[in-house]
Amino acid sequence: MAFVTRQFVRSVSSSSTASASVKKIIVKHVTVIGGGLMGSGIAQIAAATGHTVVLVDQTEDILAKSKKGIEESLRKVAKKKFAEDPKAGDEFVAKTLSSITTSTDAASVVHSTDLVVEAIVENLQLKNELFKRLDKFAAEHTIFASNTSSLQITSIANATTRQDRFAGLHFFNPVPMMKLVEVIKIPMTSQKTFESLVDFTKTLGKHPVSCKDTPGFIVNRLLIPYLMEAIRLYERVSDGDASKEDIDTAMKLGAGYPMGPFELLDYVGLDTAKFIIDGWHEIDAKNSLFQPSPSLNKLVTENKLGKKTGEGFYKYK
Ligand SMILES: NC(=O)c1ccc[n+]([C@@H]2O[C@H](COP(=O)([O-])OP(=O)(O)OC[C@H]3O[C@@H](n4cnc5c(N)ncnc54)[C@H](O)[C@@H]3O)[C@@H](O)[C@H]2O)c1
Questions:
Q1: CATH number of the domain at 24-212, please?
Q2: What class does CATH assign to 220-309?
Q3: Do 212 and 184 touch, CB atoms closer than 8 A?
Q4: Of 55, 171, 277, 295, which residue is most buried, by most CB within 10 angstroms?
């Protein structure tokens, strides 16, 4: 018994020493790659919550537009947050902007960053090339995260030698407004990396949820099949199922959704929806929820991509 007790005490104390030595990384310096819709939002909220941020994109012109967009967005936040004190609002905007520097050369800025958040275009080859290069230049402790919506995090992480320091951080659009972040663990993600990212999302004022590296993670895995089902219901309209207007009205008034599925598809972009469903279909062609849709394909071929082109399922001109 004494032996068992001694063994137990030894094993507990050695495991507590081990967990004490596995200190989480407190993210202070963030490098955001991609200054588009998502990257700008991520850079904005990281800077607004006291992080030092470097925002990277391909050209100075794009970065100038990103910074202008961030400033406009910050002014809106400041107007609400400091409604009674415009001077404090101006200071908040100036201080946040001063925490963001920009660069067109990712490799030259990652040597001392704690976290790289990648938000470049949804293209596996480009993401692989980027991370493979950054892997050589980033500090040993640096965590890599991708904001991909539809690619497998594992297939992106495979380009690096730091799979234990790799995970998904899936933000939602518009980033400053949307509270949720999905933190995606691949099998190789260490507990230390995972917990460091969860803490980071909390410092951003977001609500993290955890998910394995499964197509669509949580939100899109439920949302995309729902949107595709709505299109299939509409495609059966000649058999008398329902019109798109009635489907939208039904989901708003009957299910309490803020937008109907066709309004949401047009808002997200029909090319994005097609890209996601085609990718899943490639992975699992037998899954009835992942079947492509003739009417979605037709609209995309006609460049009717939704709100951004003035026409999708509905007309906006
Ligand atoms: N738009 C959304 O609603 C949304 C939501 C969640 C996640 N995502 C994901 O976030 C990522 C970015 O999406 P987005 O909507 O911001 O795209 P976007 O097209 O608005 O921005 C992408 C930016 O990446 C830049 N870029 C491309 N290659 C680069 C490189 N090699 N190095 C540096 N910059 C590069 C482009 O110049 C562009 O400014 C995608 O992976 C997408 O799947 C998008």
A1: 3.40.50.720
A2: mainly alpha
A3: yes
A4: 55
